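Deliverable D5.2: sample structural annotation.
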Amino acid sequence: MKRSLLLLCLVLASHGIMAQASVGYYPWSGLLSVSTNPRRILWLDTRVQTNSLFSSLNLDLLPLINIRRGEVAQWYLGGGLRLNPLYRIVDPKAKVITLDGYSLNVGVRAAPFASDRRIQVALELNPYVRNDLANGVLKSHFGLVYHFAERKRE
């Protein structure tokens, strides 16, 4: 089983299917990000908190749309859901997956190095409101992203 899964991954990677994702880290927010191909018009970003207890481990699902894409920068916006898949550790009566709230994301990914545009800096504004709409917060995120794309040949 493991051998066939490894073979499948190698085949997919050789065809460039797995090579169109990105991975990012937002150190001040404590977020690890994995996304589909961010160069497409529509893409999905998922984020998980890395600096919290298991019971408050949040998972953000963010469908995003690029509103402007250039060689150096891409501007995007979208909405999202924040889920807490492990909240049942604290409250056994809670739903299997707890919806914590909703967000709006507006951001830019800039590729400052002309020698390698796969290395990017991400800046975002992220208004967030709890699921009961009782309160919210305006967050900002700054992170580093690596886009697993083919390097352009000169």
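Annotation notes: The helical segments are 2-14. The chain is about 10% helix and 50% strand.
The annotation will be released with the project's public dataset once the embargo ends.
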